[in-house]
Amino acid sequence: MPDTPPKEAIFTRLTGAEPDSRAEPPNFLRHVAALGLTKTADGLADVKLVLSWLMTALGAPSALVGLLVPVREAGSLLPQMLVAPHVRRLARRKWVWAGAAAVQGVALLAMAAAGVTLSGTLAGIAVLLALLMLALARAFASVSYKDILGRTLGKGRRGTATGLAGSISAAAVLVFALLLMTGWVDRFALVIGALVVAGAAFLAAAVVFARLEEDRTEPEDAEFSLRAMLDLFGYLREDPQLSRLILARGLLTATALAPPYLVLLASGATQGTLDSLGAMLLASALAALVSGYVWGRMSDRSSRLVLVFTGIAGALGMVLAVGLATLGLEGALPVALFALMVAHQGVRVGRKTHLVDMAAEDKRAAYTALSNTIIGVALMGAGVFGALASLAGAGVTLTVFAGMAIAGSWVAWGLDETGGKT
Question: What gap in Å lies between CA 260 and CA 377, rounded to an integer?
Fold first, then answer.
């Protein structure tokens, strides 16, 4: 018998399955490579940590710094119902994702340029405008990706690809975090360099993804109109499982919203914002490194149970953080943050895998757009709620978020099983 081709051997080793077609092994590796590059870029240019620190270092007003997360989340999620019809009219959708990745790369390079040429309010406005460009491009990437993933990889491989990419990218972010903590390199120069590397990573991901082997399919007759947009909401009535998944995902956003409040709890125990930045990135990178691939394999077996477990784990991490702070053990809060970020990694992998597996091919783009638009609104509302709750203290806010995570776990329990190769 002839030797197994290297790409097929790697595919079988990582997924534990035989490929369905000649194109699947190279496609799997291209998905891992492209996602690994973009996830690395996301870690190097983390909105909550890196960009917030950069704008503060540049002397931008605090009001502009506070707009970073809303611009990133709203810009990438809310437009997706407008974007979806245009994506559905394309016979091959890999070009949408590749083009969006290239735009995000240019946006990150623009942020780096602003960092070395501008200061104060002007620098803050420039970074926000570049972030808005990045977020809008992310909307196109998000709408197209789940559909492309479903077309080019079979069930039982999708979660593994996304999870493995997360673990690979975490290693690069881990090095960045350690450099920030050691102070061996000027930290401002290090952050600017990280933005340049992040921009280059997105551009490289665009090239890799453009080589994906995607079969041409008949374009859908989809046009944007207010009626068409409202019709998308009809899927919530037609498919109760979609409604339940969106509700579970909305409640589990608590794992994404909670980390800044752990930083507030830890602020009295740190040596300043620079050390805090390194510690936060270190915890996040380690969590992705040790859990991404594992959550991916588990999601391919049962994404429903992954969502259940991660809701519980996230709540326990938040409760642990509150308990440590109450006992005056703020120095141990990175342990709680690590547990929370492990749970958050599972939420991200689990909900993506579940949506792709549950949706028929002709509905994936619509389901993705509808889900992300609703979650975009929910994130904005939860962010405002979190800001108001923080007036009562970070501990109270985290307790509320822990309750949300538990509720999300309970809602996810009622989801149908979709995992496994069919």
Answer: 20
